[in-house]
Write a structure and sequence with these properties.
The chain is of the alpha/beta class. The chain contains 13 helices and eight strands.
Length: 251
C-alpha cells in the first residue's frame, strides 16, 4: 500500500513529534510511506479568511506532490476536510487529478478504521493513564469521525475513541459534553479572542472534572488552543495528538 504522508504546516513547524508518530504508526501497520519534500500549506488559512482566490498556488503544489499515491493520509481533520472539499486544479487534466486526490485522502483515524480496518494495536502505556478525547468539529461534523449528539439518533462509533480503547493501560473517560467546540475555529480565535478563550476554558473544565491526565484529539490546532490555556492555568494536564498515544513506544 503506497501512502503519501501529508503533514500540515503547523504540525511541521510546531509539533514535529506528531509527524514522526504518524509515520511510525503507518509503517508499523505495513504501509509503505513517502513524504513529498516539496509539500507546503494546503491553503486552508487563506480560504477560511475569505481569500480562496489566493490558494491557486497551494492547490497546484498539492496536486504536483500527491498525485499517484494509492492513499494520502494526514494527522489533521481540518486540513483533510479542506482538501476533500476545496482542492481544485487549473484545466481539465489538473481538475481530474484533484478529484482523484479528493477520493484518496484520509484523516489518520479514518484511514486506520475504514481502510486498514485495525482491530488491535501492540501499544501499551507504561502506566494507567486517564485520557479525555476532544472531538474536533471539522473531523466530527465534516468527516463523520464520530456521532453528533445533537442529532439524537444512532450514528455509529467514534473512530478516534475506538482506536484509543485498543491501547492497553489507557482509560478513556466519558465527558459530559463529548462533542462541544473548543473555540479555536482557525481565524475565529484571532477575530473573537475573548469568546474563543472562554469556550476553551469551558471545554477544559469538562475534562478537568473527570480527572483526565492527558487530553488528545485528531487536530493539533484545537489541541494547541487548549494547551495554551492549560499552560496559563499552570495545569499538569498534558496534551498529545492521538498518533502519539496509538504508536508503540520505541523505549
Amino acid at each position: 500500500m503506497n501512502v503519501g504522508l501529508f503533514i500540515p504546516c503547523y504540525v511541521d513547524q510546531f509539533y514535529p513529534q506528531v509527524a514522526r508518530a504518524t509515520l511510525q504508526l503507518l509503517e508499523s501497520l505495513g504501509c509503505t510511506v513517502a513524504y513529498p519534500l516539496d509539500q507546503t500549506c494546503c491553503g486552508q488559512p487563506m480560504a477560511n479568511a475569505g481569500y480562496a482566490h489566493l490558494t491557486d498556488g497551494c492547490n497546484q503544489n498539492f496536486i504536483r506532490n500527491f498525485s499517484g499515491f494509492d492513499y494520502i493520509v494526514a494527522p489533521s481533520g481540518s486540513c483533510t476536510l479542506h482538501i476533500k472539499h476545496h482542492l481544485h486544479g487549473k484545466g481539465d487534466t489538473d481538475e481530474r487529478a484533484a478529484q482523484q486526490i479528493q477520493s484518496r485522502i484520509y484523516e489518520l483515524t479514518e484511514f486506520l478504521t475504514d481502510v486498514l480496518r485495525v482491530e488491535s494495536l501492540p501499544t501499551r502505556l507504561p502506566q494507567r493513564t486517564v485520557v479525555g478525547l476532544h472531538q474536533s468539529c471539522h473531523g466530527q461534523r465534516g468527516l463523520n469521525l464520530a456521532p453528533m449528539s445533537e442529532l439524537m439518533r444512532e450514528q455509529g462509533i467514534s473512530k478516534p475513541a475506538y482506536l484509543l480503547r485498543l491501547v492497553e493501560g489507557l482509560e478513556l473517560v466519558d465527558l459530559d459534553r463529548r462533542d462541544e467546540c473548543c473555540g479555536f475555529g482557525g481565524t475565529f480565535c484571532v477575530t473573537e479572542e475573548a469568546i474563543s478563550v472562554k469556550m476553551g476554558k469551558d471545554r477544559l473544565a469538562d475534562h478537568q472534572r473527570h480527572g483526565v491526565e492527558v487530553i488528545t484529539g485528531v487536530d493539533v490546532s484545537c489541541l494547541m488552543h487548549l494547551q495554551g490555556i492549560l499552560r496559563r492555568q499552570k495545569s499538569s494536564v498534558q496534551v498529545k495528538h492521538i498518533a502519539e498515544l496509538l504508536v508503540k513506544s520505541e523505549k
